[in-house]
Amino acid sequence: MSYSGVGSSPGNVAVSHGGKMKLIDRKLKLTEVLLRCSATALALLALILIVTDTQVKKIFTIEKRAKYTDMKALVFLVVANGIAAAYSLLQSVHCVVGSMKGSVLLNKSLAWAIFLSDQAVAYMSVAAIAASAESGLIGIRGEEKLQWMKVCNMFGKFCNRSAGGTASALLASIAMVFVSSISAFSLFRLYGGATQRQPNDAVRK
What we know:
It holds the Pfam family CASP_dom. By secondary structure, this protein is mainly alpha-helical. The chain is 68% helix and 9% strand.
């Protein structure tokens, strides 16, 4: 009397691959690596554009310097993109190493950790971009009710560079949203695979 599937740990799921599944897995892994690398590059570009953004304007005898630390939203965007770039780089290396090893044993705990981390980084990036965009609109249009001036009239170069950094951060966040979708698929596929194997675990006499 023999049983199939004996000895598998409840925390690990050995995913059985046919020819088509192996091809899909390779394409999915390649897409994930490209998206994570793109997110790393774009987030790093956004960070550099904003941190190095400065402009000096001379008003009569007084010099006014605009820099990213003057706006809390830009500081938040810099921090968020720094975290996103570092995290995406680490996950890119993890994906490449996993592909080189050719491992097919997926750990549910690790899959959950990656999924939740991807979601957190994506939401953080979107929140930072929303705050930066709102501050940028106030800088362009001003706010008469609160008596806030249109600073972009005086610091046009600073505002244009900040807009470029925000646009780069937006592209990075879009890549992270797609990565989150892939990690969600990879996670919940483990549970689907475990369910599909249960009818095959029959007792043979």
